[in-house]
Amino acid sequence: MGSLPSSSDISLSSSLFPEKSPNQTSINESTLLNLFKSQQNHLNFFFQNLDLSQTLKFTATLLNSPGTIFFSGVGKSGFVARKISQTLVSLGIRSAFLSPLDALHGDIGILNSGDVLVMFSKSGNTEELLRLVPCARAKGAFLIAVTSVEGNVLGGVCDMNVHLPLERELCPFDLAPVTSTAIQMVFGDTVAIALMGARNLTKEEYATNHPAGRIGKSLIFRVKDVMKKQNELPVCKEGDLIMDQLVELTSKGCGCLLVIDDEYRLIGTFTDGDLRRTLKASGEAIFKLTVGEMCNRKPRTIDPEAMAVDAMKKMEAPPSPVQFLPVINQQTILIGIVTLHGLVSAGL
């Protein structure tokens, strides 16, 4: 997109939108680039004028809240408030979105003394939020207004007001809430990460709140959680003839045989690749060969308590990748097998 100039290079007027005929629907690269540059300058205005002492007080209030942190807003600000609340929840912080309309029809019952109610409003004159204030105050909640217009009504009736500096909206009429919602989102999510750091949230704790995501799975799932075991294992003895074990080799979906002794200790592995190489080298003599004669007696293995993501790394390690790892305990007893297909199916 090219380098972005300073605010002095960008006009904030409607000149960003050149005159066009009523039926013209195209847009050129220069116009689009100027819009992005202008939005960047509006965001820079926010960063350069934000009162950090006020923001610190706001963040500390949320950090020390003994109750739940509720967020509220109307329209686009409501969407932002809901998203910020969901960010906090994902970090293990008690939070929820409270619709101002639904609150006035019963949902305010969820508010308790010690809770914090953060209300997002660009103008600070949103009627629904102003109607919510006395009801929320009666429930004992601590009220915070997050607004962008100086001297607004909402800020004056709350316990705390946080001002988000807004130069203007990107909209040529300075009406559509696109810059104001952007700075609301930046502000809220940045505070959320500040809370994350202040609470010393670990990567493992974060993962427990995202068990379905790849990050969560990589930090939660162990080999024992994703391995095949018991009757799913393609096992055989080293004295078994290769040709007698073809069904076992192909029916379990592992692409290998796990060669064990009478005490179920792992001796080695024999893969479908080994079968092809043996057949090519031995011809008809393969009918007399045992699995133990041709198996790999030094296969890569893994412990059941190892992280599943480490199993994948071990499979991909030099000198050549493998498609499976036998799972053995400290006594080399075979207890399972983890396959690349199984790891991918688990979302890793």
UniProtKB/TrEMBL annotation:
GO terms for molecular function: carbohydrate derivative binding; isomerase activity. PROSITE patterns: CBS, SIS. Residues 1-23 are annotated as: Disordered. CDD domains: CBS_pair_SIS_assoc (cd04604), SIS_Kpsf (cd05014). Residues 59-201 form the SIS domain. The keyword Repeat applies. Belongs to the SIS family. GutQ/KpsF subfamily. This is Arabinose 5-phosphate isomerase. The lineage of its organism: Eukaryota, Viridiplantae, Streptophyta, Embryophyta, Tracheophyta.
